[in-house]
Amino acid sequence: MTKNIARYEVACHCGCGFNSMDFETLKVVQKCCDYFARLLKQQRVVVTIHSGARCLMHNRAIGASDASQHVKARAIDFHIVGVRPFEVYAYLDKKYEDRYGIGSYKTFTHIDTRSNGPARW
Length: 121
What we know:
- The protein is an alpha+beta fold.
- Helices cover 31% and strands 17% of the residues.
- β3 and β4 (109-112) form a beta hairpin.
- The longest helix has 17 residues, at 23-39.
- The chain is globular, with a radius of gyration of 14 Å.
């Protein structure tokens, strides 16, 4: 799908076969990977996708909202190896200050390309 992200990495974890991902979301994550690769003077970084697309049943099973951007295949939770999640959050927040949903967690960063205005957590 991109230099750093394969289709199987964004597939729903329940095994249902839902493995689509919004192109804009993929571009945002790839630009982030490219930025940190340059910063770290590497050809490419290793990125771990914690969650991508989720079918509604799996989303409900993990206790997430039916309105989740993951259900719309517009969200990725990811970690770049060697970069702290809050650094990824800071980069995304600065680059996309008036767009998207960006969340910082202990072990990963969330990005979604929602169209109803920015959200931060």
